[in-house]
């Protein structure tokens, strides 16, 4: 998370104001999931599902370290998060990314996520782009 936040600060001058405060302990709660990709004990990529309610979860903290990019790890983490969300019975997954992250936008759109109005913390945040994926849980 520290590396991710450092990178976001380089992309967005107002990162401290636009990034929702995130307490990692929420990932220990019911319905939350943390997925990591590692190699030789080194953490290369991660992502999480944060339960919003019985029907919806938010994808949080998707990140791949720079030296591991281009290997499909982000896609693998996202695919697993979607599978975990479906298995947990969520009907919808939502997420937020920034307009300065074209690779992330491409990943989410190619995985079937579609733009939605900014939600929650991100309402009115100019550089935020919000997405949703409707899950078929049957």
UniProtKB/TrEMBL annotation:
Q: Which InterPro entries match?
A: Acyl_CoA_acyltransferase, Bact_Acetyltransf, GNAT_dom
Q: Which CDD domains match?
A: NAT_SF (cd04301)
PROSITE patterns registered for this protein in UniProt: GNAT (PS51186)
User: To which species is this protein native?
Assistant: Deinococcus gobiensis (strain DSM 21396 / JCM 16679 / CGMCC 1.7299 / I-0)
Checking Gene3D superfamilies in the record gives:
3.40.630.30
Q: Does the keyword Transferase apply?
A: yes
Q: Which UniProt keywords apply?
A: Acyltransferase, Transferase
Q: Molecular function terms in GO for this entry?
A: acyltransferase activity, transferring groups other than amino-acyl groups
Protein name per the record: Putative acyltransferase
One Pfam match, by short name? Answer: Acetyltransf_1
Give the top-rank taxon of the lineage listed in the UniProt record for this protein.
Answer: Bacteria
Give start and end of each N-acetyltransferase domain. Answer: 1-136
